[in-house]
Amino acid sequence: MERFRLHLLVGLLFSAMIAQAQIFGTVRGTVLDPQKLPIPGATVTLKARGSAWSVEATTNDAGEFSVPTVPAGSYTIEIDHMGFKTMSELLNLSIGSAPALIFFMELGSVKTDLEVTAALEITNPEASSPPVSISEQDILHTPGADRTSSMNFVTDYVPGSYMLHDHLHMRGGHEVTWLVDGVPIPNTNISTNVGRQMDPKDMQSVEVSRGGYSARYGDRTYGMVNIVTRSGFEFDREGELKVGFGSLNQTNDQLSLGGHSTKMAYYVSLTGSRTDLGLEPPTTYVLHNNGSALGGFTSLTYNAGPNDQLRWNASLRNDRYQIPNTYAEQAEGFRDIDSERDSFVNFSWVHTVNAYTLLTVSPFYHYNNSQYNGGLGDPLITTANRVSHYGGGQVTLGVVEGQHNFNAGLYGFHQSDDSLFRLEQTGVNPLTASEHIQPSGDVATVFLDEQYKPWRWITLNAGLRMTHYAGQVNENAANPRMGAALEIPRLKWVARAYYGYYYQPPPLSTISGPLLSFAVAEGFNFLPLHGERDHQKEVGLTIPYRGWVADFAHFQTDASNFADHDVLGNSNITLPLSIAYVRVRGWEGTLRSPQVWRRVRFHLAYSNQVVKGAGSITGGLINFVPPAQGFFYIDHDQRDTLSTGGEATLPWRTWMSTNINYGSGFLDLNGPQHLPPHTTADFSLGKSWREDWTFGFTVLNIANSRYLLGRDSAFAGTHYNDPRQVMGQVTYRFHY
Predict the structure, then answer these.
(1) How confident is the model at residue 442 (pLDDT cuts 50, 70, 90)?
(2) What is the SS3 assignment for 138?
(3) Could you name the CATH architecture of 2-104?
(4) What are phi and psi of 228, to 5 degrees?
């Protein structure tokens, strides 16, 4: 078995594998004259709206063109041909999509001023479950979203998403996959990290999916956050210096530099932040709760030739948190510290085989270090240090031709951990228990995925993802997935349905020896963890109307061995557990507007969901005793979640943005009762001065409302929301 795993890993890393860096889509179309005859030789220019990136294509004898390596985002398409009026339209391109567009050119002997029409493909009619797209402007203007450790750019726009015990949750779970320029950042440790992997200021755009995944995606499947990073095409040998300061002595600062030529683009940033409010406090006051972060990020894109592109990303980040205390804990001498380091490097070789075929090889490495150190004054001094190394690769061959959008590929990684658990009980009867383990595991995946359009108004999606996991247990999974999207003619409404299975590999964590004896003495036990297996069903409807887009979905996820976590006694060690069965059922809706009155944009995200569990604890830390029969609520359960807001462009290069968040209340104690509902409002105001200065002012939780997020939960403890925060920021742009 060891020899098989070694050969498999070597094959994944160094063989001629097939992988697609999943930030690209394909733009293809047909250019016709007023008599619906093809126009050969027309020049099609695709220009990014937020950067200097552009590409040209020429229509063939059938009037067709195809551009296979287009990063997801917003573009302007210009089509020019002698004897016809030059036309221009907008296109919103999603990751992995391949819209087949039709353009009609009008006769005309001279060029005319371009008039940009409404955006094409705003409903993403090919997706079984469309993602939520967040632009760079959304990130920079949403109140508090561009702070170094903020998740507002997700929670303010994605239905059913919220922060709970300092973890991002979507659709009732916190197993979320992060992808950087399409390359996944593997992390099987779902509970020991609260630090972020990237600063939002380094993001150009983000796509967030909650379900309906094609076979290209796997692992942590309650949410997929796919980040398109700033590449340097947004800069022309320019730099930005952002300096901010606010209440609770917080500051979020960044220096970034970038530039590009016709063949290369680069971007580099250095980020630093600190605050007196690092983590969700257990009380309404802030005590022993400092947090700080220092990090750097760089991106390099090099066009080696007309058919080859090289992309490289690297990140290094260090977070340090004081563990917040109550007054009693502060008086007893609790001084616990959590230090985290995270770094990753990924590389992609993107090769255009021909106009229809794309080959990408993406090796990656991820390092994660979490060190929890109890203070010397703690009655029970806790040490929980873990170092994880992940090395692997992703490779996919994508073919877009005619009615087919086909992908086949491999994905895998090897994980090795080095973990130290130590408990030292002080006082009259001192006791020490420690354990040093070095577990390892492998994940290997093969997938096939096909998107077929028998007619323009219907898209069929089907795929198969097969995974082998070897670690503390050995498991195999074959997960079929299928879906359909039907575009209703004239109305342009899109009805969709999805049915699929997922597998999520388990963490490597385990305990034995003296530490297990301590756990047993405290009334706990520890069983081997198995992978989570999910079954998801979803139906939905997307309704566009004059630039407005409303989307509705109903889903149900049935999970076996649902991954969660618990706390070992009063030691502050968080260890994973799995629940026999969890069902998440809900309704979701989003609404996005165009620019109304040329000044105002609105957004709304609503979710109604129920998260219930049944059965026993099947793996990990065991101390929670579920009801003898029937369902019980999971601590992630919140029935109603609403986020709505808007942005207004004001005179004198000024803008204003607001957001309101409502929640019906999370589980109280172990249920079934829930905490009271809560509402907060945020506000931002910004102004640009000349071409090189921008000033911003932000207030979060304007009314300073305080409420419990959870109280004495068996899974997560007690947490309150953050108090009011007032911040100011200055941005200076310069050339070098």
Answers:
(1) very high
(2) helix
(3) Sandwich (2.60)
(4) -95, 115
Nearest alpha-carbon partner for 390 in 433, 358, 346, 356: 346
**Domain chopping of the chain, boundaries:** 2-104, 132-455+463-735
SS3 of residue 621 by DSSP = strand
Over 295-364, what HEC string results?
EEEEEEEEEEECCEEEEEEEEEEEEEEECCCCHHHHHHCCCCEEEEEEEEEEEEEEEEEECCEEEEEEEE
pLDDT-above-90 percentage for the chain:
49
DSSP helix, strand, coil percent of the chain (3-state; round to 5): 5, 60, 35
Looking at CATH, the fold of the domain delimited by 132-455+463-735 is given as: Maltoporin; Chain A (2.40.170)
> Is the pTM higher than 0.85?
yes
Place of tokens 């997960």: 479
pLDDT in tens, 449-486: 999 999 888 999 999 999 999 998 899 999 999 999 99
Task: Tell me the C-alpha distance between 184 and 218, whole Å.
Answer: 10
Task: Look up residue 613 and give its amino acid.
Answer: G
State the number of CA atoms in the 13 A half-sphere of 295 facing the CB: 29
Q: Are 501 and 533 in contact (CB under 8 A)?
A: yes
Helix (H) or strand (E) holding 514: helix 513-521
* pLDDT tens digits for range 395-415: 989 898 888 889 999 999 999
- Tokens, residue 162: 């919220």
pLDDT band at residue 11 using 50, 70 and 90 as cut-offs: very low
Question: Which of 557, 500, 641, 467 has the alpha carbon at shortest distance from 222?
Answer: 557
The DSSP symbol for 516 reads: H
Which single residue is written with the structure tokens 């097939």? 18
